[in-house]
Amino acid sequence: xxxxxxxxxxxxxxxxxxxxxxxxxxxxxxxxxxxxxxxxxxxxxxxxxxxxxxxxxxxxxxxxxxxxxxxxxxxxxxxxxxxxxxxxxxxxxxxxxxxxxxxxxxxxxxxxxxxxxxxxxxxxxxxxxxxxxxxxxxxxxxxxxxxxx
Length: 149
Hints:
By secondary structure, the protein is an alpha+beta fold.
């Protein structure tokens, strides 16, 4: 597959991300889109925490899933789409920070199944701190009614 087969994947990802109500609801923003890699950032918001005041695991998982899914979206044909079919998240450190960065990168591209790895970081003063990792499996969808872009 070459770049012309994928069309303008950056614009397709931006448009698809803009339609994701879940990411909009949590205040996430798409900050970097490259072939095989996507970054999503999220400011700290107390409404997204669990009972101890740290970022909820569900929010971390959702952001990592989106980052990995859009990374997969960057390596497929323009007429296809992506659905996550499996993922595992490891929570490594409490989600405490002023901002959070979620990066998804393709580990193994494929024509039907794509594997991506994600990393979540808490950002405050000092170096970014790794708070979570994810491995996800995505299925390439073609010609299915109601699932496009």
